[in-house]
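[stage:ingest] chain + small molecule (iron/sulfur cluster)
[stage:ingest] validated
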Amino acid sequence: MPSAASKSPPARSLVAALLPWFAAKHRDLPWRRTRDPYAIWVSEIMLQQTQVKTVIPYWERWLGAFPDVTALAQAPEAKVLKLWEGLGYYSRARNLQKAARQVVELHGSRFPENFADILALPGIGRYTAGAIASIAFNQPAPILDGNVIRVLTRLFALGGDPKEKALQHRLWTLAEELVNTAARIPPPPLPAHFAGPCSALNQSLMELGALVCTPRRPACSACPLANRCLAKRQGTAEQFPETKARPETVARRFVVAVLERDSRLCVRRRPEGGVNGGLWEFPNLELAPADDPSSTASRWLGIPPDRFVALRPVSHAITKFRIRLEVLRAAVPRRFTAPDGGEWHSLEGLDRLALTAAHRRIAGQLASNPPPPAA
Ligand code: SF4
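[stage:predict] done
[stage:export] tokens:
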């Protein structure tokens, strides 16, 4: 168990070391070349749960399609979901649009600058509001994400679970102290595209966590805070932050039916409100551990088991679930009725629909596999 902080480094010396480091070493990311709060907001939402290199093309396509809040507010939801396809956690895309509509209605299409107004928008929590307020408007609003938590718990050798209230409060207070200090002291020269020292300070904490103070084997020798860091001094960096063991994963298996009728494929829309609500997928059914996919699909769909051709199974994970999709393809006669309110679309037509990521991988197999023999 790491020991508690003994002598904490003063905020001023931390800020003075972080700002020049960030000015020299920051990654040139497209959303760092703008101060447009809308563009920064979109990047922050996309970056939740998703890596930078994945987000870049999505962010560029999104800004191309919806260059401002008005364009996003007016867009059809199907287009919004399609542009989000593959990023997962689709409530993020829906909330972006809901919030864009609020900005249009309540703020005359101008993204609000006031912290409380930003925080009041759907899908924006304290972290995202702080990121927008500081990065776009250089306000001394603190931020606390996984990277910042890691840096701060190590710097100050703070034991305990960061999800617990007392440590959360302590971390927010430290983050606030740092950004307030950045607002007060004379800043070093910063690139012109940064809104100011509060913007740079918050981003420097995130950048340090992403590039240097990594979860495993932090590069302390390259860290601008190395001689001020308590965990480094104690040789305990990797013990922070203390995290609870993850819940055990649960294995689930589904059979997915890729049904073809007159060169059209059957897909259905997932119900609103649930996981991946509103996205499209091939009809599927959960299997019990001992179930055979072909016989189960045969009973479910009334198709003889020998009509199915197996495609490559697809594995993916959602929260604690490890999911394996057993994929069976079959041609069905014209009189066959689509199961579960499914619709028939051509393979090219599927490109225009927002499919779940796992089912998009299934669709990707179809072009390179010969169609099944006609029923
Ligand atoms: S010295 Fe090491 S542990 Fe401390 S903040 Fe820097 S990278 Fe992280």
